Amino acid sequence: MTKFEDNKVFIYNTLKANKEEFHPINSPNVGLYVCGPTVYSNVHLGNCRTFLTFDMVYRYLIHLGYKVRYVRNITDAGHLENDADEGEDKIAKKARIEQLEPMEIVQRYTVDFHNVMKHFNACAPSIEPTATGHILEQIEMIQDILDKNLAYEVNGSVYFDVKKYAEANDYGELSGRKIEELREGSRELDGQSEKRDAIDFALWKKASENHIMRWSSPWSVGFPGWHLECSVMSSKYLGTQFDIHGGGMDLKFPHHECEIAQGQASHGVKPVNYWMHGNMLTLNGKRMSKSTGNTLLPHELFSGENELLDKAYSPMVVRFFMMQAHYRSTLDFSSEALAASEKGFQRLMTALKTLGQLKFKKTEVDPILNQEIEALCAQCYQFMGDDFNTPRTIATLFELVGKINAFEKEGGITKIAEETKDLLSNTFSGMVVDVLGLKVEETGNEGLLDEALQMLVKIRQEAKQNKNFALSDKIRDELSAAGVQLKDSRDGTTEYIIN
Ligand code: AMP
Ligand code: ZN
């Protein structure tokens, strides 16, 4: 495996508006926190893009040998309909409309989210904490901020005192917003808000009578503000200062700006060293978004049941389509673009299979070819290390596809050194399978294959019982030539292993 010592990673840090070399606080350990979904409806493809971006980041860091603790939360309380601490809780609203318990809504859409992520071959996070599972910790953090005089209580609600905080800190450092502009742009109606200042944000809200998601606290029966859960869960599981925090660009303000303020106020340190933000997936040029209904759902794509689609597309093709764009660029969804990705994906996966089957033939080394392949392999790491540039990595992989196909025509891998052959195999499959997270799609015929193989195993056993060893050996040898090994155990049963 390639080691992180040999392969630098540069990350575009939103906080510095610059690419910086990645140095974990406690290498080889890396702490990665990603804002997870608010589980009040099915995740759409835009959400999936952000989660697949950070899946790729996680995979690449692991591929380099880092030990990554990846925390991605589930927002199951506190996310109100608009970002200005007003409106109904998104989950409670859905529960009211559907006449279900809020936790039934949470369960339904968490299960959907996990299913979708599985289809996309996304790794499960190391920890997936929920907001409702951390109410006590949230209350503790609010008390801490109150004790530091950076928050105040009004009528059972607690608000973060932005003006006070900004006396000693740079509120707006992540999003580039200025306090004055924020105040002017605030939508709050004069006199109707209990906040001292329109730019303050809620840490705890007293629940109105009909607000069904509610918990006891020293201030009121109420619920935590949305930004708080991520500060609490990231510091609990990754420490008060950790390496990477990710999410979509739309979360920069207010969510992440407020996370910085809460962390700094409570712990006296900047919580995150590298802030990463993925750009939006668009549909017809407009951001894909639950609230506007401009969405496409993963299952519509997999079944082809949407008028925007000419046919169904498999999860791996969609994943590849997303990896073909750099995560900081917008990506517009179209059926034509997906059709092109489908062809590219198939070419890549065919080459992966071919590479696995090609035999190495020891011949005289062609130094130019040898060097070319080594350089292309090194390039894959350079591009991935350059702020996870997957499109350029994929372009390089396609250059390697050309070399692999040429080897196939020659009947084996020739004219390169054995170490270069190993480098090629490790880099190509490492990038395609481990880093980009692509896999050969199942055809749905696996059950049939199993039945056919079981039948052959049975015929062979009968042949052996009848002392027809010519037939039993023939079955074993021919299966072996086809890549299926039979393993007889002492108790007389036989297992098969597909190579
Ligand atoms: P939400 O469930 O609304 O909290 O969103 C979950 C994640 O999806 C967040 O990181 C958002 O930034 C991200 N997201 C929402 N819409 C899009 C989009 N159109 N493209 C990419 N990411 C998105
Ligand atoms: Zn968050």
Number of helices: 16
Q: What is the 3D form?
A: globular
Compute the separation of the termini in Å.
22 Å
CATH topology of the largest domain: Rossmann fold
Q: What's the number of domains? A: 3
Instruction: Give me the CATH superfamily of the largest domain.
Output: HUPs
Strand content: 15-25%
**Helicity, in percent?**
40-55%
Bound molecules: adenosine monophosphate, zinc ion
Strands side by side in the biggest sheet = 4-3-11-12
Mean pLDDT: 93
Low-confidence stretches: none
Indicate the radius of gyration in whole angstroms. Answer: 27 Å
What is the name of the CATH architecture of the largest domain? 3-Layer(aba) Sandwich
Q: Class of the largest domain in CATH?
A: Alpha Beta
The counted number of beta strands is 17
Secondary structure category: alpha/beta
Described by strand count, sense and barrel closure, the largest sheet is: 4 strands, parallel
Give an overview in words.
The structure is a single chain. The protein is α/β, with parallel strands linked by helices. The protein folds into 3 domains: 276 residues, Rossmann fold, CATH 3.40.50; 153 residues, Isoleucyl-tRNA Synthetase, Domain 1; 53 residues, no CATH class. Helix content is 46%, strand content 15%. Strands 4-3-11-12 form a 4-stranded parallel sheet, with helices on both faces. It has a 4-stranded antiparallel sheet with strand order 7-8-9-10. Strands 14-13-15 form a 3-stranded mixed sheet. A hairpin with a 3-residue loop joins β5 and β6. α11 runs antiparallel to α14 and α12 packs parallel to α14. The longest helix is centred in the C-terminal third of the chain and has 23 residues. Bound molecules: adenosine monophosphate and zinc ion (ZN). The site of zinc ion has 3 residues, from loops.
